[in-house]
Design brief:
The protein is α+β, with helices and mostly antiparallel strands. The chain has helices at about 15-20, 75-85, 110-120, and strands at about 1-5, 10-15, 35-40, 50-55, 60-65, 65-70, 90-100, 125-135, 140-145, 150-154. The chain has an eight-stranded mixed beta sheet with strand order 1-2-4-3-7-8-9-10. Strands 5-6 form a two-stranded antiparallel sheet.
Length: about 150
């Protein structure tokens, strides 16, 4: 699945990433929100990025029908491990979570959390990507660190 970034590059979600996220689609009332982080590569001499893997909910994360809070320090350990194993080519690229709606949109809490992430986290680019997995569609937003601006990309 490909999305056009604001700089005209491509953000590609690999098939295994789509498959991992789709395991948590909230298509039944008993399914809680899920989420994790996006990990992937900046493609040399291009504006393109590939998301190769995601973390999934881990022990200690808080989940309910309408909320996912990534509490576990284990996500950070997985980010560091991926960075080390890849000799510094696998990067933290953003966050993902599910919504129990067909065509998801970020809540005011999502936007607040994303701006806090942009403002406080250390990452390798001026942009982070925020994915919401809905029942019918996966949507992506691009967050710009300098201005804390968040824009949907298609």
């Amino acid at each position: 699945m490909k999305f056009t970034k604001s700089n005209k590059g491509i953000l590609k979600l690999s098939k295994n990433v789509i498959s991992s996220m789709n395991e948590f689609v909230q298509d039944e009332k008993y399914k809680d929100e899920a989420g994790g982080v996006l990990l992937g590569r900046f493609i040399l001499n291009t504006k393109d990025i590939i998301v190769d893997k995601v973390t999934i909910p881990l022990y200690g994360d808080l989940r309910s029908r309408y909320q996912y809070i990534r509490e576990s320090d284990n996500h950070q350990k997985l980010i560091i491990d991926a960075w080390n194993k890849s000799a510094g080519t696998c990067n933290y690229l953003g966050e993902w979570h599910t919504h129990p709606e067909n065509y998801p949109n970020p809540s005011s809490q999502d936007l607040k959390n994303w701006k806090e992430i942009l403002n406080t986290r250390t990452f390798s680019s001026q942009y982070l990507y925020f994915v919401i997995v809905g029942i019918e569609e996966i949507r992506v937003w691009e967050g710009y660190k300098r201005k804390l601006k968040i824009k949907r990309i298609k």
